[in-house]
Design a protein that fits this description.
The complex is a heterodimer of chains A (668) and B (503).
Chain A lengths: L3 H20 L1 H32 L6 E11 L2 E9 L1 H24 L6 H20 L3 H19 L6 H32 L4 H7 L7 E5 L2 E4 H16 L8 H4 L5 H10 L4 H8 L1 H4 L3 H23 L4 H21 L3 H28 L17 H14 L6 H15 L5 H27 L6 E2 L13 E2 L8 H27 L15 H6 L5 H8 L3 H19 L3 H8 L1 H8 L4 H49 L6 H24 L1
Parallel strand pairs in A: 5-6
Antiparallel strand pairs in A: 1-2, 3-4
Helix pairs in contact in A: 1-2, 1-4, 2-3, 2-4, 3-4, 3-10, 3-15, 3-19, 4-5, 5-6, 6-8, 8-11, 8-13, 10-15, 11-15, 13-14, 13-18, 14-15, 14-17, 14-18, 15-16, 15-17, 15-19, 16-18, 16-19, 17-19, 18-22
Chain B lengths: L5 H19 L4 H25 L8 E9 L4 E7 L1 H20 L8 H20 L3 H10 L1 H11 L4 H30 L4 H6 L4 H18 L8 H8 L2 H26 L1 H27 L4 H21 L1 H7 L3 H36 L10 H4 L1 H14 L6 H16 L1 H8 L1 H16 L7 H4 L6 H19 L2 H19 L4
Antiparallel strand pairs in B: 1-2
Helix pairs in contact in B: 1-2, 1-4, 2-3, 2-4, 3-4, 3-11, 3-15, 3-22, 3-23, 4-5, 4-6, 4-11, 5-7, 6-7, 7-9, 7-10, 9-11, 9-12, 10-13, 11-13, 11-15, 12-13, 12-20, 13-15, 13-18, 13-20, 14-15, 15-17, 15-18, 15-22, 15-23, 17-20, 17-22, 18-19, 18-22
Classes of the chains: A mainly alpha (668), B mainly alpha (503).
Chain lengths: 668, 503
């Protein structure tokens, strides 16, 4: 049995840590804040491991209880509670492990930052929010965690709040996420409409009843209720997991400190959408239309966002676009009902993408916060640990046989190939070509950063803060301290090996049990299971498979262009200028959104305000009626002339009219 | 204490206490301040006694007091509270303390009169929420205008005369129709007793006329689009305390009127004209959201955001007929009504807190222009933390009070009609837009001037006031169940009453 108290401590420890670190500014101090935050997350991690062990090897049943009642109206009751099954447990361990690594890393990365304590308060608060999301046993709590992680993400993107670009990016991220949440809350409302409850287990138990149920949205056209619910919920997933067309916030979120990019904008929060759809698999299975949409959106993101990664020069932005693309792969897996494969890739990606970001952060620290790769190069000798771990992360990312990313990504590609649903062919090409793109930008990053000639100068006595000159450093770059390198190493280990050990149980062992539900007709993983003969066989077989050679092609092109022929890339960019421009301008999506929604919204607001409120209501109606009274009384006042003969005349006329009227009507 | 006339004490203690405060005179502001604070604290404590005496389980009207008042026209001094009223009264007494605390050093001129006006206002507002006689309700409803008129007219800003006139004439205009409606009801029922009026059968034609006479009065008070334009002007000119009371409590008098008059007395007309109120509510949420977005004046921005948030209240109240009568979904109907009342309470805390924050800034730089501020996070970090918290509550972030009501209303409106929910949920986007853009400009960034960079951090008094608001906002967001439990039976009884046709 998993104890409820244990779960409460697991979830609440980071909250307590955040409160102490954030509110006790003077009392706990910088070191105290770091220690408390790290301790609180370490407790969560340890307890997550306990829960995982109990559930997987200890034979504990699934935990599903409310801790307290949050909402109660009549018979409808929604609580704050926990659902712990294997899906939850896997997420718990992943989230708390990466979070712990990032906490330790932060000591080194944020050492000189005046916001050191605030930072620890935020990331501990983030861990709490993410745990609330993962542990939820109903849609209300899911939404609570969902929005809270959005809040912390907002605070952390805008962490360096004096920079206009940071506060702008934070605002943008929150609003775009809110667009997703707009759909999400409507989805939850639709769930309540359909099932009269928001409790997961009750909803999932009734999910098969959705078949054939319709709702009339536009008069006379019944829509499938299941499709509507799933699509609305997926709008939320698009926001949080940065899928096209709501992807625009994630690249800008790189304004936040790098540990955050690793934790929130790569490993955990952005995967909430993936987790949510997997959790809702009983609902998604009821609508192939929704699954097709999911598949197409994911495939589009996977390929087209990856392309942008090729032309970025900011080291963090390359990895950000890579994250978008990899999230696309996970969404693709969901779309073909290979939920387990999506979650599997989520987990492996969490390790190697956190590693890549933290490695990039290590480079950025060494480069005195220079992020432009055009001013790097040749760093491999100066920071060997970072160099090697970054290579490991990249090899995992490009799905090199044997590495963790290989097992997860290859299975997704194969699952798409097996799938028969609408859009699967398109998606297959996207994910296949995506492999080439991934290899290209990954090795480009490695070569530009660590190989070739050094493109920066070291001028001793040059003051870092006086005025920033690109490519000029005050001190030579050197390897980061142990608080930075140890997390790198600890993340590199699972990046290499975790796939080998977990693929068989996670994908083919029915490991997730009841927590993921797939209809027999959709079950591509079941078909693939027939051909799966263990990780070793898969490893050997890979050398004859298409994705491997496509990745090799990407590697070859990157090596040819960026290692041996520097300058070729620029010439190519000039030759294919329209394409290059389209990619550097990110398909002009940002410009369109900004002009249409931000500036358009302000214009609309002005029009409403000046035209509606000030013009029509106040001008015409309110003050208009006041001035009407004034004007008419000015006219009426003229009657009061003060001349006696005027009054006498009026009286006589009145008398005549009165008597005449009486006589006329009286006689009839 | 059960045989004490606790409701009468709650009404008259602040009103009579005001006389004492006036006696303190202009020369002794300290006495006036402390005496007022003591009175509000005692009133708050008594309201907690009332809360504990009220039994949520059975619901209905409790702690009733009935005395002859004007027997000739069957109007009596009849008091009583149900769960909804109890919640609003506690909101009133709680906020009053914070208003007095907020005005402590800020009001320097005629302190005793200011404090007395606040106390009278508090007493009258409590009165509105616990009377069970229509004529008496009208009396309190109108009397509220008087202290508010003075608060804006004497301690207000430069355009206070225009604002007070606009405010007074606007609301008074609506009240006339309300009075005519009441007189007609008396003519039909022969009594002003509210419960008798609820039971009074009325033809559809009568109900329609009455519905609009009520609608005009309450729509102006709430305020609903398009009769909301008095509110931004009144807020801009009002002193901080006046704004807080106005936003936090006075606006609720309008929606409380809907609950006590429109819904139960003319249910059939309310049902057939519900579409009108629903459309106006949705316009309030979206149109006003856009208007709020472009306000250069912080107070106007928050005032407009109040109008948008009150849109959720009227929406939650008027979808009840679609749910309860047309779809026979009593459960979801109750969810909508409860959501509306929760939103009333929450908006009290959130808007009160936001106006207090603006007051804190105004006291330092004497401007409400957004452009005059920036970089609060660096200049006043604690204050900035409060700002962000209340801003998040304003855009309905979970675990703050602002989320609870909106969530309930959006959820229930989807069952009524998905399109209503679609437009209502747009508030998630536009609300975040205007609130967080404000935050971006004043909290983040850098201070635009030397004065703005040198603003002193909030002092203990300001910290306590904002802290109390913060506790309320968070407590209600994290654990709203007690509030819902308090109202559950009363809301269920209201919905049951609405199910039956009067025609």
């Amino acid at each position: 049995m998993i104890s409820q108290n244990l779960l409460i401590v697991l979830a609440a420890a980071p909250l307590v840590g955040a409160l102490i670190a954030g509110l006790g500014r003077k009392q706990v101090g910088r070191a105290g804040a770091a220690a408390i935050a790290i301790l609180s997350v370490a407790i969560s991690f340890a307890l997550s491991c306990v829960v995982f062990w109990q559930l997987v090897w200890g034979g504990a049943p699934v935990f599903n209880h409310d801790v307290y009642t949050w909402l109660e109206v009549g018979k409808l009751s929604i609580g704050i509670g926990f659902l712990v099954d294997r899906l939850t447990a896997l997420m718990l361990v992943t989230v708390t492990f990466v979070s712990l690594m990032v906490h330790v890393y932060t000591i080194g990365y944020m050492r000189d930052d005046p916001g050191f304590q605030r930072f620890f308060a935020y990331i501990a608060l983030f861990t709490f929010s993410m745990l609330m999301l993962v542990l939820a046993n109903n849609f209300l709590q899911l939404f609570i965690g969902w929005e809270l992680v959005g809040l912390v993400s907002y605070l952390l993107i805008g962490f360096w709040f004096e920079r206009p670009s940071a506060s702008f990016a934070a605002l943008k991220a929150f609003i775009v996420n809110r667009v997703g949440d707009f759909g999400f809350i409507l989805g939850i409302a639709a769930v309540l409409y359909a099932f009269h409850t928001l409790d997961y287990s009750a909803v999932f138990a009734q999910a098969p009843d959705l078949a054939g149920r319709t709702i009339e949205i536009v008069g006379g056209h019944p829509w499938s209720l299941a499709t509507l619910i799933c699509l609305l919920l997926f709008v939320g997933a698009c926001g949080k997991s940065a899928q096209v067309p709501l992807h625009v916030w994630l690249p800008d979120s790189m304004e936040g400190p790098t540990p955050i990019s690793a934790l929130i904008h790569a490993a955990t929060m952005v995967t909430a959408g993936i987790f949510m759809v997997a959790r809702m698999s009983p609902l998604y299975e009821m609508s192939t239309t929704a699954l097709s949409v999911v598949l197409i959106v994911g495939a589009t993101t996977a390929f087209f966002m990856g392309l942008i990664g090729i032309v970025q020069n900011d080291i963090k932005r390359v990895i950000a676009y890579s994250t978008l693309s990899q999230l696309g792969y996970m969404v693709v897996a969901l779309g073909v009902s290979a939920y387990a494969a999506g979650i599997f890739h989520l987990m492996t990606h969490a390790f190697f993408k956190a590693l890549l970001f933290l490695g990039a952060g290590s480079v950025i620290v060494a480069m005195h916060h220079e992020q432009d790769m055009r001013y790097m190069g040749g760093l491999r000798k100066r920071m060997p640990i970072t160099w090697i771990t970054m290579w490991i992360g990249s090899l995992a990312l490009v799905a090199t046989p044997g590495f963790s990313g290989f097992y997860s990504k290859d299975q997704i590609i194969e699952a798409v190939g097996e799938s028969q649903i609408f859009g699967a062919t398109y998606a297959y090409w996207c994910v296949l070509l995506g492999v080439f793109v991934t290899a290209l930008y990954s090795f480009r990053l490695l070569y530009m950063t660590f190989h070739g000639k050094e493109r920066f100068k070291v001028e001793h006595g040059h003051d870092d803060h006086a005025h920033h000159q690109p490519g000029v450093l005050a001190h030579a770059p050197r390897e980061s301290p142990w608080v930075i390198t140890v997390p790198l190493v600890l993340l590199a280990i699972p990046s290499v090996i975790i796939g080998w050990f977990t693929i068989e149980p996670l994908l083919y062992g029915g490991w997730f049990g009841e927590s993921i539900k797939v209809l027999p007709g959709h079950d591509v993983l079941a078909k693939m299971a027939e051909e799966f003969h263990g990780p070793a066989a898969m490893f050997l077989h890979s050398f004859t498979s298409a994705p491997f050679w496509i990745a090799v092609a990407g590697f070859a092109v990157a090596t040819w262009v960026y290692l041996f022929n520097p300058g070729l890339a620029d010439r190519a960019a000039r030759t294919f200028l329209p394409v290059f421009k389209m990619l550097t301008r990110k398909y002009w999506v940002d410009e369109v959104y900004y002009n249409l929604f931000a500036r358009g919204g302000v214009k609309l607001g002005r029009a409403f305000w000046k035209g509606g409120d000030a013009g029509l209501i106040d001008g015409a109606m309110v003050n208009g009626s006041a001035s009407l009274v004034e004007r008419s009384s000015r006219v009426l006042r003229r009657l009061q002339t003060g001349f006696l003969y005027h009054y006498a005349f009026v009286m006589i006329v009145g008398l005549i009219l009165l008597l005449g009227g009486l006589w006329y009507w009286g006689l009839r | 204490m059960s045989d004490w006339p606790i409701l009468s004490i709650l009404i008259w203690l602040p009103c009579l206490g005001a006389i004492l405060v006036l006696l303190a005179g202009n020369a002794r502001p300290r006495v006036a301040r402390w005496l007022t604070l003591a009175l509000t604290v005692v009133t708050f404590a008594l309201s907690l006694v009332m809360l504990s005496e009220y039994h949520a389980g059975p619901g209905g009207f409790q702690l009733q007091e009935l005395h002859r008042w004007i027997p000739g026209i069957n109007s009596s001094y009849h008091l009583g509270v149900d769960g909804i009223a109890v919640a609003l009264i506690v909101l009133t007494t709680f906020t009053s303390i914070l208003v007095i605390g907020g005005a402590w050093q800020v009001i320097k001129d005629k302190v005793h009169q200011y404090m007395a006006a606040m106390l009278v206002l508090e007493g009258l507002l409590i009165g509105v929420f616990c009377v069970m006689d229509a004529l008496l309700f009208y009396l309190f409803f109108e009397a509220i205008l008087i202290p508010m008129f003075f608060l804006i007219g004497i301690w207000g800003g430069p355009r206070r005369v225009y604002a007070t006139l606009k405010f007074f004439i606007y609301t008074f205009f609506g009240s006339i129709f309300f009075l005519i409606g009441l007189l007609y009801l008396y003519h039909r029922a022969g009594t002003f007793d509210l419960q008798a009026l609820w039971a009074l059968p009325l033809t559809m034609k009568e109900q329609s006329w009455l519905f609009f006479s009520f609608l005009i009065a309450f729509a102006i008070k709430t305020p609903m689009v398009p009769v909301h334009t008095w509110l931004p002007d009144a807020h801009v000119e009002a002193p901080t305390g006046g704004s807080v009371i106005l936003a936090a409590i006075m606006l609720k008098v309008g929606t409380y009127g809907f609950i006590r008059f429109s819904l139960p007395i003319v249910p059939d007309a309310s049902e057939s004209f519900a579409w009108l109120v629903i459309v106006l509510s949705l316009i309030a949420i979206i149109y006003i959201g856009y208007v709020a977005l472009v306000q250069p004046d912080m107070k106007k921005l928050v005032a407009y955001s109040s109008v948008a948030h009150m849109g959720f209240v009227t929406l939650g109240l008027f979808i009840v007929y679609m749910l309860a009568r047309q779809q026979h979904d009593v459960q979801t109907a109750a969810l909508g009504v409860q959501g509306a009342v929760v939103q009333m309470i929450s908006h009290g805390f959130v808007s009160g807190a936001l106006f207090t924050c603006i007051g804190v800034m105004y006291d330092r730089l004497h401007t409400r222009e957004i452009a005059a501020y920036g970089g609060l996070a660096k200049v006043m970090p604690w204050f900035a933390a409060f700002w962000v918290l209340f801003a998040m509550a304003n855009c309905g972030l979970p675990f703050t009070s602002g989320f609870v009501g909106e969530f309930m209303v959006i959820l229930s409106s989807f069952t009524a009609n998905p399109w209503i929910a679609l437009f209502a949920a747009y508030s998630l986007i536009i609300g975040a837009g205007y609130t967080l853009w404000l935050i971006k400009r004043i909290v983040w960034g850098t201070a635009p001037s030397k004065e703005a960079a040198a603003m002193p951090e909030i002092n203990t008094r300001e910290g306590l006031v904002l802290g109390a608001f913060a506790v309320a906002v968070l407590a209600m967001g994290v654990y709203p169940w007690p509030l819902m439990h308090l109202m559950d039976s009363s809301v269920a009884q209201l919905v049951t009453h609405l199910m039956a046709s009067k025609v």
